[in-house]
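Q: I have 325 residues here and want to know how they pack in 3D. Can you give me a structure?
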Amino acid sequence: MSNFHDGFQRQFSYLRLSVTDVCNYRCNYCLPDGYQCDDKHDNLSLTEIQTLAQVFANHGTRKIRITGGEPVIRKDLSDIIRVVKSTPGIEDVALTTNGYKLEEKVEFWFDAGLDGLNLSIDSLDPRVFQTITGHDRLKEILRGLDKAICLGFKRIKVNAVLLKSYNLQEFDTFLRWLKHMPISLRFIELMQTGDNGDYFQQNHVSGEDIKQRLLTQGWQLKKKGPLAGPAQEFEHPDYLGSMGLIMPYSKDFCNSCNRLRISSSGKLHTCLFGDGGYDLRSLIQHNDQAAIADEIQQQLLDKKASHYLQQGYSGSTHHLAMLGG
């Protein structure tokens, strides 16, 4: 079977699968007023997730990242991980989480077959962390991180959205922390969405400026692996950990796009900042795998060359919790 591809010859080996759009945090760059329940939740079932994993695996997908909202809210998360990991052709299963119940649950996820963990930690200062997220949970999240390291995950990444008014002054603190942590620290450039225009103007930090800062301090750019995400990775001989920059406003950011997104309600999103999703739910419920694959491939032929985010366009993305980033 042929791999999913678009009209620009980009191949898609990476699926970001949202299992809920509910989030229990109130991060001021994403959901400052908390999650607003607009309608009844009709999340993909375990069987539907299995169907999707099979379809994508049959058409070139090798990595699936489970996202939310906050995926840990799903009580069957370990079962989801197990089903996805057992799908023939899927080589890598990762999870993006805000750290909710990490210390309590991480061993179950590891035993279910989870390969990689992405953990959001926007500040190492408990007061700043609480200001950004609305929760005083930094200490328990750091304990969970230590437990994950001890378990022996293949890959652990810590994500921090860089914010001029909040955590930018912690840049050197993060670097000192990374010196002795066997993780990849990812600084994410703040993205403008449909509801954060003023906040974006006040807090956006250029990823290119951070990149130049790293290069002047002796960091070297690493070569990307075939299943890598959008980050530019850097390493330094004096640091146990590595550094990644996710810079959606950088030139040619979309040229290497290798990922698709499925929402928690079964919609295909060919771009995080596209004009809406394509509803696959009825095909998924009937387990019509050939029809699902045909529809995905057809929609990919309409995928644009760029997200045009640098031109102030954010499509139908009102906040990042909609699709887990």
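Q: Anything worth noting?
A: Residues 313-317 have pLDDT under 50 and may be disordered. The CA atoms of residues 273 and 314 lie 5 Å apart.
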